[in-house]
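Blinded run. Sample ID left blank on purpose so nobody reads anything into the name before looking at the predicted structure. Input follows.
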Amino acid sequence: MSTHDSGEYGKGSGQRPNEGDRQQPDASKGYEATDVRVSGVVVFLVALSIFAGVTALLAYGVGKVLNARMASEDGAPSKWARTVDVRPLGNMPDNPEMQNKMAELTQQFPTPRLQTDDGNQDVADLHSREDLLLDNYSWADPSQGKVRIPIERAMELLAQRGLPVALAVEQTPLMTGDKKPVIAVPLTNGFARTGYELDQAAAVARGRTEERR
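Blinded prediction complete.
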């Protein structure tokens, strides 16, 4: 039977010492009495320096390989393939003729053009053109003497003369399962003003009110 001291760790049977046999640190001073192991710090700094150096060499090597590959693909430098420093040229002077030409090209740009107001102004212009046709006299076909009349006048004439009577149309018998179509009158009640148009009308009304004051 082994007679080695069980208090010496790593000797004898190799068993771990009991918790009570371990040497407890001296806490009477209130701080750590042992010094920092300088060797560990030195090893860390040396390893960090080696890692940084290897990384820098690797990045430099990759850069050289990429530059050599691009140079071989671009070919030898010539007047057609070279880097030009444009900073000494400065800013180009204004050219009124070129600016006018660009303005003409911009104005004549084919449709569809980029909308700058989400289409609100286009809808307002469409309603304005419709109002001109609905509220004023205009030629429909001058060769035949046909004239458009305001919608208010058309309603007055319709109230006086009544609706025209259409000629009777001979109807064919309905097929099995078919039904006679029923038309609800009126088909439409016109268009509703958009919020953009209502805001414009309110702004015009406010302007007129301020002018009267």
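Unblinding after everyone has recorded impressions. The longest helix spans residues 38-74.
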